[in-house]
Amino acid sequence: MVEVLEETTGKDGRKVLKVAKENLLALLSDLKDNGFTHLSLITGIDRKSKLEVVYHLHNLTKNEYVVVKTETLDERVPSATGLFKSADWDEREQYDLMGIVFEGHPNLKRLFLPDSWVGHPLRKNYDLSKVQYINMDENGDDYATFDPGDGW
Amino acid sequence: MIQEEQKNEHREWTELNMGPQHPSTHGVLRLKVKLDGETVKEVEPIIGYLHRNAEKICELDYYCDSLIYFDRMDYVAAMNMEVGYLEAAEKLLNIPPPERAQWIRVIMAELGRIAAHLVWAGAFGLDLGMLSPFFYCFVQREKILRIFTEICGSRQETNYMSIGGVYQDINENIIYMIEEFTKEFPDKLEEIFNAFVKNDIFMSRNKGIGILEPDVAIQYAVTGPMLRASGIEYDVRKAEPYLVYDKLNFDIPVSYKKDNLARFLVRFEEMRQSVRIVKQAIKKIPDGPYFNPKAKKSLMIRLRGEGEVYARTESPKGEFGVYLVGDGGVKPYRVRVRSPSLRNLSVIRHLGKDVLIADLIAISGTIDLVFGEVDR
C-alpha cells in the first residue's frame, strides 16, 4: 500500500491525492491496476519556490475520476511513460513550457517550441520582453534566435 | 522467411517530409514519414507551427477576457470551446448561469457540433479526392453560421457567451431560424451521407483501414468520436452531465468496427443526435433572465477566484478539459487546457505503421485535426 500524504476533495468534487515524489509511480501503477487506465492530463504548476505536478486519471468503466498531486523542489519528477503512453506527449509539453524534467522519459524533447529556444514560457520568472525569432535551417527544421536577421 | 526479414532490415528507407504546407494535413501538421516502397514504416508528427501559448496569455488577462482565446483554439467550433472554458470559470468564480442561459448554451453547442462535423466531413472528402460533398457540407454549414451571425454578429469566432450567462438573449426570429434549420437539415444530411457511402472508392478506401483497438485508444488517452468508434461507449455529456444535458433525450453512437469507416459513421450519427437535441431544447427553453446579475459588465474585471477547478465538456473532437487555478486575484494563476485533438493525433504514430502512404492521408483525415487546438 502506497503512503498518501493527504486526501481531500476539490472545489469541483474530485478526489485529490497528495503523494511524495518517491511514491508517485507506485501510486500511479496501483491506480492503473484498479481500473484508472486513462491518464487524461498532466499539468505543471509553478509555485515559485517549488513545482507542482498534477495528474488527472480516469476510470472509464466505473466512471470515476481521481487527481494525483506531487511536488518537486529540483524540477525533477519520475516519468510515467512506462505506465501510460499518453504521458509521452504530455510530459514533453510540460518539459517544453514549464521546464519539468521527467526522469526516464525515452525522448524528452520540446514538443511545440524549437530545441534551441531559451527558457520555459509558463514559468513565472520568464522574461516576456526578450523576443526570440524562429528561423528555418537548410534541413527544414526550426531554430530560435535572439537575432532578428534579414527576414524581419 | 527469416532471411526475408533480415533483408528488410538492411533495406534503406526513404524519408519523406509531408507538410507543414501540404493541403491534406488540415493546417500545419508536418509528418516525417519513413517509407519502404509505398509502405509507411514509421511516422513522426511534428507540431507547434501554430503555437501561441494561449495558456500564458490567459494568465496575463482577466477571467472574462480569456474567452476570445478559447474561440481561437478550435476555430470551427468556437461555441463548444466557450462552453468548456465557462464551465470551469463559473465554478471557480461561483457565478452559475441562469436556467435560460444554460438551454441557450446547449442549443449553440449542438449547432456548433454539427458545423464542426460538417467541416470535417467536407475536408475528409477532399482528402480522398471527392470534391462535390465538400460543397454540400459547406452549404449546410453556412446556414448554421447565418444563425450565429443573427445571434451575435459573427460567423466563426463568435464570443457569444460570457461569464454568468450569454451576451444577448435569443428572440423569436432566431428560434424560427433554428426550427427551420432542424426541419430541413435531416434530409440534406442524408443526401450528404449518401454522396459518401454510395461511392465505391470511398468505401473501399476506408473499410478495414486504420484499425484502432480499444485498449490502444485508452493507452493514448484518445477521446470523442474516435474512442466511440473503437467500441467504448463513453461521452462526457452522459458520464458527467454539464449544463442541462441530463434533461435531454439522446443516444451515444458507438461502432465496434474500429476502422476509418466506423469513425465516419459515428460522426454522422452524432450529427443526427445533435439535431434531435436541438429540436427538444428549442421547445423546452424556459423564460427568465439570460444573465446572472452577479456578473454585470462593470463588475466583470473585479471577479476574484480562488481554488482549483477542472471542468470537462464534450467538444466535437473529444473531451475538452479546462483546469483553472486561482490564487484569489483578478487573473488566473494557471490555466491548463486539455485539447482532445492533441491526444487523438498522438495515436497516429501507432496507426501509421505498415500502411500505404495513401491510407495515411485517409487515417489522418479521420482524426479530425484542427491546429488551433492541437498547438494552442
The helix-and-strand class of chain A reads alpha/beta
> Under the CATH scheme, which architecture of the largest domain in chain A would be assigned?
2-Layer Sandwich
CATH architecture classification of chain B: Orthogonal Bundle
What's the helix count of chain A? 2
The overall strand count of chain A is 9
Q: Low-confidence parts of chain B lasting 5 or more residues at pLDDT below 50?
A: none
CA(first)-CA(last) distance of chain B: 47 Å
DSSP strand content of chain B: 5-15%
Largest sheet of chain A: 5 strands, mixed
Strand share of the residues of chain A? 25-35%
Q: Considering the protein shown, what is the CATH homologous superfamily of the largest domain in chain A?
A: NADH:ubiquinone oxidoreductase Nqo5 subunit
Number of helices of chain B: 16
Secondary-structure element string of chain A: EEHEEEEHEEE
Number-wise, the strands of chain B total 9
Indicate the topology.
The complex is a heterodimer of chains A (152) and B (376).
Chain A: E1 6-9, E2 15-18, H1 24-33, E3 38-46, E4 51-59, E5 64-72, E6 76-78, H2 87-98, E7 101-103, E8 133-136, E9 142-145
Chain B: H1 2-10, E1 14-18, E2 30-36, E3 39-46, H2 54-59, H3 67-71, H4 78-93, H5 99-127, H6 132-152, E4 161-162, E5 165-166, H7 172-197, H8 200-206, H9 214-219, H10 225-228, H11 236-239, H12 260-284, E6 306-315, E7 318-327, E8 334-338, H13 340-346, H14 348-351, E9 355-356, H15 357-366, H16 371-375
Antiparallel strand pairs in B: 1-2, 2-3, 3-9, 4-5, 6-7, 7-8
Helix pairs in contact in B: 4-5, 5-6, 5-12, 5-15, 6-7, 7-12
Walk me through the structure.
The complex is a heterodimer of chains A (152) and B (376). Chain A is of the alpha/beta class. Chain A has 2 domains: 6-111, NADH:ubiquinone oxidoreductase Nqo5 subunit (Beta Polymerase, domain 2), CATH 3.30.460.80; 113-152, no CATH class. Chain A is 14% helix and 32% strand. Chain A has helices at 24-33, 87-98, and strands at 6-9, 15-18, 38-46, 51-59, 64-72, 76-78, 101-103, 133-136, 142-145. Chain A has a 5-stranded mixed β-sheet. In chain A, strands 6-7 form a two-stranded parallel sheet. The model of chain A has no long low-confidence stretch (mean pLDDT 85). In chain B, α5 runs antiparallel to α15. Chain B is globular and about 70 Å long. Chain B is an alpha+beta fold and 376 residues long. Helix content of chain B is 49%, strand content 14%. In chain B, the strands form 3 sheets. Chain B has a 4-stranded antiparallel β-sheet. A 3-stranded antiparallel β-sheet of chain B has the order 6-7-8. Classes of the chains: A alpha/beta (152), B alpha+beta (376). The interface between A and B is medium-sized, with 31 and 35 residues.
